[in-house]
Design brief:
- The chain has about 290 residues and is α/β, with parallel strands linked by helices.
- The protein has a single domain, classed as Aldolase class I (TIM Barrel, Alpha-Beta Barrel).
- Helix content is about 45%, strand content about 20%.
- The strands form two sheets. Strands 1, 2, 5, 6, 7, 8, 9, 10 and 11 form a nine-stranded mixed beta sheet that branches. The chain has a two-stranded antiparallel sheet with strand order 3-4.
- A hairpin with a 2-residue loop joins strand 3 (about 80) and strand 4 (about 85).
- The protein starts with a helix and ends with a helix.
Length: about 290
């Protein structure tokens, strides 16, 4: 583990950029960016287009470690290069941004009001490759729709099982048990989730994890997790809120920083000049930064 990166994530000021759209979410991300399906004819070309978008963000003068603590990458982004360097090396060596890798393979079908992660064959190999590619940590997402105690327990058990596998490789996992912002019993689901997460942390041993959570219905509801000695950082996903909405809620939650995806890239298009693109990105980064460090 890179101690300098560990200290930056734990003590630095800023937020984490989620640049990890994968196969299922890439077409939507590209449409929002002004690149429709007529501009690529297969998956290879689609991933070329999304890498161009991510490279444009990462190489922008607005995107530096002064306000962006870390960036979560899709596997293909980790395996590609930016300006002749592996993406992870460029992020840390040039920009001072700590690199993470998304490792989950998507969600299983709903059961007990939740969707656990699909099986991850080859995870050990991916983790070993991630270490070689300079990754600091991982991110793995599951999804909670209803306040079902058994379902939420299954989600948290799986998250910590995967987290321990990640920790065994010297990487820091971001556990992401997302709660649906449209859940009819969102606050109750959050209460069950917090209870399960605290129990999982108590059983963790002398190691650190990060948590990526939906912005809570009650301000500072996750304060116990923010202050927990085994939690390096609690980050929040935007979860379908607009950037303005997400930042307003985030600013009311002490110690929680952003890890936004769609809310970060809101307003960016392929058709913008570099000056306009950089101006819009700079304003987005500044708004999310201020909400994260208040």
């Amino acid at each position: 583990m890179n101690q300098q990166q560990f200290d930056k994530v734990g003590q630095g000021r800023g937020f984490i950029a989620a640049l990890d759209q994968s196969g299922g979410s890439t077409p939507k991300a590209l449409r929002l960016y002004g690149v429709d399906e007529s501009q690529y004819s297969n998956d290879t070309e689609m991933f070329d287009r999304i890498h161009e978008m991510r490279s444009r963000i990462i190489t922008s003068p607005a995107f530096t470690g002064e306000r962006v603590l870390g960036a979560i990458l899709f596997e293909q982004t980790m395996d590609r290069q930016i300006e002749g360097q592996d993406t992870g090396d460029y992020l840390w060596g040039v920009k001072g941004v700590v690199p993470f890798i998304k490792i989950d393979k998507g969600l299983a079908d709903e059961s007990d009001g939740v969707q656990i992660m699909k099986p991850m064959p080859g995870l050990d190999e991916l983790l070993d490759r991630s270490v070689k590619k300079g990754m600091f940590g991982t991110k793995e997402r599951s999804f909670i729709k209803l306040a079902n105690r058994d379902g939420i327990a299954a989600i948290v058990d799986q998250q910590f099982d995967v987290g321990r596998q990640v920790l065994s490789k010297g990487l820091v996992p971001i556990l992401e048990p997302e709660v649906d912002i449209h859940s009819p019993d969102k606050a109750k689901a959050e209460a069950l989730l917090k209870e399960a997460l605290l129990a999982g942390l108590d059983a963790l041993g002398d190691q650190h994890v990060m948590l990526k959570l939906t912005l809570p219905s009650e301000d500072n509801f996750y304060a116990e997790l923010v202050d927990h000695p085994k939690v390096l950082k609690v980050v929040a996903l935007s979860g379908g809120y607009t950037r303005d909405e997400a930042c307003a809620i985030l600013a009311r939650n002490r110690g929680v920083i952003a890890s936004f995806s769609r809310a970060l890239t809101e307003g960016l298009t392929a058709q913008q000049s570099d000056d306009e693109f950089n101006r819009v990105l700079d304003a987005s980064i500044e708004e999310i930064f201020q909400a994260s460090v208040r």
